[in-house]
Amino acid sequence: MSNNHKFIAGLLLGAAAGAALVLYLNGEKGRELLTELKEGAGKAEDELKATFSEFDEAINNLFEKGKLLLADLEQKETAE
Question: Using CA atoms, how far apart are residues 41 and 26, in angstroms rounded to an integer?
C-alpha cells in the first residue's frame, strides 16, 4: 500500500471514529458520561487544590524552621 493510500485510509478511519464519538456523546449515555466526567474533574480539581494547599503549608513550615535554625546558629556563633 502506498503512502497516499495509507494516509487516505487513516483519514477515513479518523473521520469515522470522530463521527461515531459525536453520535455517542449526543445520545443519553454520552450525556451521562460527560456529566460524570465533569463531576469527576471537579472533584479532582478540589483534591488537587487541597493537596497543593497542604504542600504550601508544609513548605512554609520548613522555611520557618530553617529561619529559626539559622537565627539560633547565628546567636550561638556571636555568643562564642
Answer: 20
Model confidence pLDDT, tens digit, residues 12-60 = 999 999 999 998 888 898 899 889 999 999 999 999 999 999 999 999 9
- For residue 80, pLDDT beyond 80: no
From the CA atom positions of the chain, what is the Rg in Å?
Answer: 28
DSSP single-letter state for residue 2: -
DSSP assignment string, 32-49: HHHHHHHHHHHHHHHHHH
Q: Nearest Cα to 47, choosing from 39, 36, 62, 5? A: 39
Phi-psi region of 48 (alpha: psi -120 to 50; beta: other; left: phi over 0): alpha
